[in-house]
Amino acid sequence: LIWSNQLAYNPYQGTTGFDDEETMLPSYWETKFSRICLGMKNGGETNFIAVNVTASSLYSLIADGKYRPTSLGRDKGKSLLRSRASLQYNCNREGFNTLCGWSGAFQPRARIGILSNEQNNCHSCDSRIGFGTGGHPDFSNSCGNVAKHRADSGDKNIKTMGYILVQ
After folding, report:
1. C-alpha angle with apex 145: 141 to 149, nearest 5 degrees?
2. What is the pLDDT along the chain (167 residues), one digit of tens a residue?
3. Which of 21, 47, 50, 150 is 20 to 30 A off residue 75, Cα-Cα?
4. Side-by-side strand order, sheet with 143-147
5. Are the CB atoms for 117 and 144 separated by under 8 Å?
6. Predicted model pTM
7. Distant-in-sequence, close-in-space partners of 26: CB < 8 Å, separation ≥ 6
């Protein structure tokens, strides 16, 4: 629900820099932008990528749950975790509110990210890299990389701290 409302969450933590404290600031629904900077912190390493997209706010892209594709490519998504990242080879559906196959709580999803599959379709994805993630195969990993079943760098479950900045 945090992605679909306009309530600040833990706003003081938004002043502390790149730490491990979660926050959602009014800028989520108030700030127009033409570029998003996405970062993942894993251990002592933080990597960022830029996404050129224009919107009236992140809220306007995410809150309605509508899929909005991007075309960064799997390598760009994997660069958030460098050589540790792993995805299956097929499907590679990416963007905002990305879903794959199934329905309900089991459905693999990412508010921002990429979902992949070992079959040549998007019906049963078992790997993802993203922010606001959930569903199969690991319901507890909300930011990072989960990969099972013939992923390019093997099975992974990497939980990260995510940073989403707009410009």
Report:
1. 105
2. 789 999 999 999 998 888 999 999 999 999 999 999 999 999 999 999 999 999 999 999 999 999 999 999 999 999 999 999 999 999 999 999 999 987 777 899 999 999 999 999 999 999 999 999 999 889 899 999 999 999 999 999 999 999 999 99
3. 21
4. 68-69, 90-99, 109-117, 127-134, 143-147, 156-159
5. no
6. 0.94
7. 6, 8, 11
